[in-house]
Automatic annotation (TrEMBL):
Species assigned in the record: Pseudonocardia cypriaca
CDD domains: Aldose_epim_Ec_c4013
Protein name, entry field: Uncharacterized protein DUF4432
Entry superkingdom: Bacteria
Gene3D superfamilies (alphabetical): 2.70.98.10
Upper taxonomic lineage: Bacteria, Bacillati, Actinomycetota, Actinomycetes, Pseudonocardiales
Pfam family, one: DUF4432
MF terms in GO: carbohydrate binding
C-alpha cells in the first residue's frame, strides 16, 4: 500500500480482517457550524491519497490530501450546508458564500456569469424568461446516494467507489439529472469522475457544464509552477494587464490581489486528452487534471492569489468565457432534447516528482 507493496484479495485478507486497514470509504455526517448535517464519504486509498465527497453538495470534492499535504482548496466559507444557500442573494453571487474544496460543479443548465435568458420552450406565460446566478444551481443540491464501498475486480484490484444522482428540476422549467460516479483504486493516487447529464424532461433544455477545480496551499505556494500545453490565449481579464502577476510561476499570497482569469486554447494529445498541472518542486509533488477536449472544448485558468483565499483554478468548460447570452447569440449554446444525455470522464491525479 503506502510503501509501494500491493496485495491481491487473498493476501490482504491474510493480513487484516477488514479492508479498512489498507483503505476504504467511510460515511460520516458533519456536525458543527455552517457544515452541520452534510453527509460526507471519506475516501482513503492507502497510497497516500485521501479525499472527501460532499454528498449533500452535488457529490463535489471537498478536502483532499496527498501524503499529509493538502491540495484541495480550503476557503473561509467552509463546506456550508445547502439549506443555508439563497440562490438569488447578493445579485446572484451567493455561490461565493459556499465556495470551497477541490471541486465545485457548475451547471446544469447555466454556467459563468449571471444572466436572464429566454425560457419560452417551457410554455409557461408567467415565466417567459429565467434568471440564472453565477455558475448555476447544481453545486448546492443534495444527491440521492445510490451506494458506495469497495469492489474487487478479479480478486486482483480493488476499486473504491461511490455513486449518486443529483436532480435539478422545476415545474414549467428544466428537468436535468446528473448521475455521478467517483472511483479510486486501493493503493492508487488518482480520482476518476464519471458524470452523465440527462434531460429527463420533455422540452428542449439548455445545458452548460464546467468544473471549477481549485488547488490550494501547501501544493500551491511561492515558486509553484502552473504548466499548460498552451496553443494560445483567447481572452484574459483586465486585471492581468493591471497587475502583471505571472500565470506560470506562482507568487506568494498578495495583498488586495484581484482575480486573474484567462481562457486558453490547449493542445490535446493524440487521444484528445489534455493534462494541465501544478508542480511544487519544493515539496516534490504535482497535481494534474486530465480531461477530454471533445467533452470540454474550453478551458479557463483562475488565479486567486489574495491573502487568506490563496488558490489557483483549473476550469474545463463546455462553453466559452462570455457565457450563456453570447452562446445563444452565436449559436453555440447546447440544448438537450428529451432523453438526450452527455457523458464526461475526468481524472484528478497527484504524485511525486
Amino acid at each position: 500500500m503506502g510503501d509501494g507493496v500491493t496485495f491481491d484479495r487473498a493476501e490482504l485478507a491474510r493480513r487484516a480482517g477488514d479492508i479498512g486497514a489498507a483503505g476504504g470509504v467511510r460515511a460520516v455526517v458533519l456536525d458543527d457550524g455552517a457544515e452541520r448535517g452534510i453527509r460526507v464519504l471519506e475516501f482513503r486509498t492507502g497510497g497516500g491519497l485521501a479525499f472527501d465527497v460532499l454528498v449533500d453538495r452535488a457529490m463535489d470534492l471537498g478536502t483532499a490530501e496527498f501524503r499529509g499535504n493538502g491540495f484541495g482548496w480550503r476557503s473561509a466559507t467552509g463546506f456550508r450546508h445547502p439549506g443555508l444557500h439563497e440562490y438569488a442573494d447578493e445579485g446572484g453571487l451567493s455561490m461565493l458564500r459556499s465556495f470551497s474544496g477541490l471541486l465545485l460543479t457548475a451547471g446544469l443548465d447555466h454556467t459563468l456569469f449571471t444572466a436572464e435568458v429566454d425560457a419560452s420552450q417551457y410554455r409557461y406565460p408567467h415565466r417567459a424568461a429565467v434568471w440564472n446566478g453565477l455558475h448555476g444551481r447544481v453545486a448546492n443540491i443534495p444527491a440521492r446516494l445510490h451506494g458506495y464501498g469497495e469492489r474487487w475486480i478479479d480478486d486482483e484490484r480493488c476499486v473504491l467507489w461511490a455513486e449518486g444522482e443529483v436532480r435539478q428540476a422545476a415545474i414549467f422549467g428544466e428537468h436535468l439529472r446528473l448521475t455521478r460516479r467517483i472511483e479510486a483504486d486501493l493503493g492508487g493516487t488518482e480520482i476518476r469522475l464519471i458524470d452523465t447529464v440527462r434531460n429527463a424532461g420533455f422540452d428542449p433544455t439548455p445545458h452548460m457544464y464546467l468544473y471549477h477545480v481549485n488547488v490550494g496551499w501547501p501544493f500551491l505556494d511561492e515558486g509553484a509552477r502552473y504548466e499548460l500545453p498552451l496553443e494560445r490565449t483567447l481572452w484574459q481579464s483586465d486585471s492581468v494587464a493591471e497587475q502583471g502577476a505571472s500565470n506560470v510561476e506562482m507568487p506568494a499570497p498578495q495583498k488586495g490581489f484581484v482575480e486573474q482569469v484567462y481562457e486558453h486554447e490547449l493542445k490535446p494529445d493524440a487521444t484528445g486528452k489534455v493534462r494541465p498541472r501544478l508542480v511544487n518542486e519544493r515539496l516534490g509533488v504535482f497535481f494534474e487534471l486530465e480531461y477530454d477536449s471533445a467533452q470540454f472544448p474550453a478551458f479557463f485558468q483562475w488565479l486567486h492569489l489574495r491573502e487568506g483565499a490563496y488558490a489557483v483554478g483549473f476550469e474545463p468548460s463546455t462553453h466559452h468565457v462570455q457565457g450563456e447570452p453570447a452562446a445563444r447569440e452565436d449559436g453555440s449554446m447546447t440544448f438537450l432534447e428529451p432523453g438526450e444525455e452527455r457523458r464526461y470522464e475526468t481524472t484528478f491525479r497527484v504524485g511525486e516528482l
